[in-house]
Amino acid sequence: MYPGSYALKHPDRAAFIMASTGATVSYAAFEMRSNRLAHLLRAQGLKRLDHYAIFMENNDRYLESCAAGERCGLYYTCVNSFLTADELAYILQNSESKLLICSYAKLDIALEAIKQCPRINMLLVCGEKAQAPSDQALAKVVSIEHLGSVAGRDQDSVRVHDFVEACHAYPATPVADESLGTPMLYSSGTTGRPKGILRPLPENPPSKPLPLFEFLTKLWRYREDMMYLSPAPLYHSAPQAAVSLTIRIGGTVVIMEKFDPMDYLSLIERYKISHSQLVPTMFSRMLKLSDKERATYDLSSLEVAIHAAAPCPPQVKEAMIDWWGPIIHEYYGATEGLGFTACDTAQWLSHKGSVGKVLFGDLHILDEAMQACPKGEPGTVWFKTGSPFEYFNDPEKTREATSPDGTMTTVGDVGYVDDDGYLYLTDRATFMIISGGVNIYPQECENLLITHPNVADAAVFGVPNADLGEEVKAVVELMPGVAADQATVDDLMAFCKAHLSIQKCPRSIDFEESLPRLPTGKLYKRILRDRYWGHKTSRIV
Questions:
Q1: CA dist., res. 22 & res. 521, Å (int)
Q2: Residue 54 CB-half CA count within 13 A
Q3: Could you give the CA distance from residue 387 to residue 397 in angstroms, rounded to a whole number?
């Protein structure tokens, strides 16, 4: 998120616009804002390769909070804004963050978390004070500002300041020792405790990004005058990368605070959006709009719509292509950056269900004995990494993700490669169901259920069965107004049996008011599954 020469070349061009309010920040203002925070970080003693963290919803201070680190040689950790205080505290401690930036809306959680984090010596709070969840939180801030410590904290004191007021005291010019910084993001924790993903950081100037990001700029056809619509939380790696690259190339970002299908379509027309990146659940929600609603806005400005982060049911993608045309691109690449596959619309239509061909890294599909699987046979996806990384402060997890000879890495996805070299993902290894000795990957059933007009979301996983070991269970979130009764169960059961072999169909279906899915598209299936297995591991601690 380094504006570079564009702050001089196009000072009045909008670097970003907040979708809900239309509030606009120019390149010149963005440059000054990020410089002031960079000076503050230096004044707090943060030097190259040190860490700080950001914990807040999408807002008009998020991007500069990242940009300052990118010009100071720092690692910055954008934390999932839905975490609890204990979950936040774990990440703050594990990342060795020395400073935390949060919003008034997240203040209660931040104050509770930093009691457990002796390394944190400053808390910067941004946004409207009226957004604080309680008067008690604001009273705590007043107390902290007066006394210089958090109640219950035994370590050194932590100072709490209003973000804007604190930054205003510093120069709007660059720090003298600018160098490239980068995010150190955490895995989503959908299958276990989240892990910090640390990439080596060369001593580059901030104008020279890591090679992976230069590659993405070309792949996604970014250009200087583009208009990018960001509908996802900025703490996630995909919108992080997309927004950063847009600003680095001189485009304008429109940031949605929260995704809404009709709002999203209206923003495309209003701002003549050329590029966007979504997750499959966003596609599904838009496809459930009426024909009249879908036709309300002019979408002709769209040139590139990218999707990733979670499996997209082929039926959903086909419907989107029918609606938007051949502008949809897909990629597969974990936050770890170990490898990367991609396909455009034409490639996908000739290899339906694929996540593309390898463009970055060296792909291998291996069985449990670390032997190569034949073409078309599923196995664990491994890469001879194209971008080195380690799990920060977690050597055990780094070893688990690395092959015995140290040459390959994996995040535990299962897939196969066809004769043309296209990769197909079947599921996470963690969620494979073994029923009567048969391996069942639940993603296929999930992909089917989400296409049913009465289904808003679905999760499929294995539950105990005395004879078979496991059986297939579906948990469904219904569309508004649909009755959670036996008739609906029977309808969904019949729907599955009409399209899937019997062993892949759920033996039972339960209903939930909402499934634990992140706005990034990732489903916390582990939380649902553990209820049926009697485990008490649903919290990320």
A1: 26
A2: 29
A3: 17
